[in-house]
Amino acid sequence: MMFAQLGDIIFEGLKGFDSLSVSVSSSIAQHQLIGGKPKLQGTGSEAQAISLSISLNAAFCTPENEIAALEKARSEYQVLPLIDGTGRVYGDYVIQSIEYEVIKTDTTGAIVSAQVSVELLESYDIEKEKARALAARNAAFAVSSMTPISASTVGSGSDATQLMNSVQSAKAEASAIDDNIKIAQTAGNIERIYADTKQRVDNVVQHAQDIQRKLLSVQRLYDLATGMYDQAGNVITNCTSMYNAISSGSLLGLTNANNIFQSSIVSLDNTSVPIITAIATRKI
């Protein structure tokens, strides 16, 4: 299950935040008065700042890769939407600074565990906010120029969370399937492994069908999400090949089918990121 997402950087499972702190402040001008205290005038709000503390460990990720992804986003001044697993959108941010402490390495010098601190600064674009407000007005049903539309056609944070959960669940099952096949290549008890693999393929089919149903239920999204819908269909098709390989009892056939199946899961995951981000940030 997804914990949070920063741009296309996903935090899930044990790779979550140790802490998240938000700092908001007002911009206040002080007008000096003769013989008295200054008169205060609020002039707006300062950019919101968020501090993240993240623990990385080689047991559940590759710390160097995670740090590199954050550093790439920082150095390129990427504007990243921050979304949590409930679908809540914090806003758009840039990474202002990154600090990390290497706690442990292995004998080759590779990082085993590290503690990372990330400072985010809100990227506020008034024209972008005006465009969002106009789009929201144009999509609203309570204006004289609009015909009411079904609530099922409007994307929401809940839609984004449900899609993300389905994709992440399919990935978890696919990973377990891959592990099963590796075990089967070196160990016995093939029947039990085949049975467990078939059950997990059943689960992947269910998750892929859930993805397609959700995309179909959000009509405005569906026009822009045919790629993700088709990838979910490819996963289901490749699950059929997995079923056939399991039924034949051929480990070689199952291994080959699994290679294609795993590739389709990666493609589904890749196509999901921009779509889910767009739903959660109400850009579509």
Characterization of the model:
- There is one protein chain.
- The protein has about 280 residues and is α+β, with helices and mostly antiparallel strands.
- The chain has two domains: about 120 residues, Beta Barrel (Elongation Factor Tu (Ef-tu), domain 3), CATH 2.40.30; about 130 residues, Up-down Bundle (Four Helix Bundle (Hemerythrin (Met), subunit A)), CATH 1.20.120.
- It is built from seven helices and nine strands; from the N terminus they run ββββββαβββαααααα.
- A seven-stranded antiparallel beta sheet has the order 2-1-7-8-9-6-3. Strands 4-5 form a two-stranded antiparallel ribbon.
- β1 and β2 form a beta hairpin.
- α3 packs antiparallel against α4 and α6 packs antiparallel against α7.
- It is elongated and about 95 Å long.
